[in-house]
Amino acid sequence: MSDLPHVFDATTETFEAEVLRKSLEVPVLVDFWATWCGPCKTLGPILEKLAGDYNGAFLLAKVDVDKEQQIAAAFQIRSVPTVFLVKDGQIVDGFPGALPEGQLREFLASHGVQPAEAAEAQAEEIPLDPQQQVAALREAVAAEPDKDELKLDLVLALLKTGEAAEAERLLDALPANLATDDRAVKARARLGFAAALKDAPASDALRAAIAANADDLHARHLLGVHALVAGDSEAALEQFLEILKRDRTFEDGLARKSLIDAFRVIEDEALVSQYRRKMSSLLF
User: Fold this and answer.
1) Would you call 20 exposed, middle or buried from its count of C-beta atoms within 10 A (0-12, 13-18, 19+)?
2) Using only C-alpha atoms, what is the Rg of the chain?
3) From CA 272, how far away is CA 267, in angstroms rounded?
4) What is the end-to-end Cα distance of the chain in Å, rounded?
5) Per-residue confidence at 181, pLDDT binned at 50, 70, 90?
6) Paired residues of 187 in beta bridges
7) N or C: which end of the chain has fewer CB within 10 A?
8) Band of the pLDDT at 246, cuts 50, 70, 90?
């Protein structure tokens, strides 16, 4: 087993707990390698260095394809090295072959994975007042109108102030290469919650419906969305979790999807971590 920080050897016995469940809390990069593979000897040390540099922003799971043939077969590995990024229990991206460090950093950044210290510093720079944040970002976009990343930041700021229509217009106008950016995914999630409340009953009516029928999962979902939009994150997560407890297949897994989307938009990391564990205990 590796003794490097944030790096571990994944096995068939530990894969579900250490990769799939852990990815509900932090992204996991899975490196499929072999002792006889030349490019693996180049890529492996770079990935391990990045895992240390990023200080826990992602975990590196190493899979020896000769020893762990069951995992390799499940991922349909045809050549090594092959790398996959797992988030929220699902494969979100990957690549075959060895990439240089610069491209690996770009790959991680494209999925919102940044060195832990840099992410903290960036968070400290954001004004606490949402209106001030919108004003500052409008000025930044005006000064650099071709910088699409700033427009994406503005989209998120607008959503915090309830200006969903303008946010959606800006989001739709962004280039395709930003569509998979974690901030764009977060914005789409917020817009999805806002859209779900169109023509929805008021919270009091939904509570009455649930009191009359505790299995009214549609009412529970809408009540959870109301709570999330109003800023009561824990109440929202409780409703989504209750749906999962009662019927995980309801509307093609709506509860799980709602929880994952909520995790993307809720900024209280401790609360998100708490409910990720609760969701994981129900799913696995």
Assistant:
1) middle
2) 21
3) 8
4) 25
5) confident
6) none
7) N
8) very high
Q: What is the mean pLDDT of the segment spanning 182-195?
A: 84
Tell me how far apart the alpha carbons of residues 278 and 150 are, in angstroms, rounded to a whole number: 35
Among all residues, which ones are annotated catalytic? 37, 40
Percent helix, strand and coil across the chain, each to the nearest 5: 60, 10, 30
Q: What pLDDT does 48 receive?
A: 92
Structure tokens, 253: 């897994």
Task: Name the one residue in this structure whose structure tokens are 């700033």.
Answer: 150
Amino acid, single-letter form, for residue 230 = A
Torsion of CA 122, 43, 20, 229, to 10 degrees: 20
- Tell me whether residue 30 is exposed, middle or buried, using C-beta atoms within 10 angstroms of its C-beta: 0 to 12, 13 to 18, 19 or more: buried
DSSP state of 126: S
Residue 49, H or E segment:
helix 38-53
Residue at 35: amino acid letter? T
* pLDDT of 182 above 80: no
Burial 48-74, CB ≥16 within 10 A → b, else e: bebbeebeebbbbbbbbbeebeebbee
Comparing CA positions, the residue from 234, 247, 242 lying closest to residue 274 is 234
Q: Please answer whether residues 160 and 130 qualify as being in contact, where contact means their C-beta atoms are separated by less than 8 angstroms.
A: yes
What is the DSSP annotation of 217-274? HHHHHHHHHHHHHHT-HHHHHHHHHHHHHH-TTTTTTHHHHHHHHHHHH---HHHHHH
Q: Are strands 7-9 and 59-64 parallel, antiparallel or unpaired?
A: parallel
Amino acid at 185: V
**Does the model's pTM come out above 0.85?**
no
DSSP 23: G
Cβ neighbours around 219 below 10 Å, total: 22
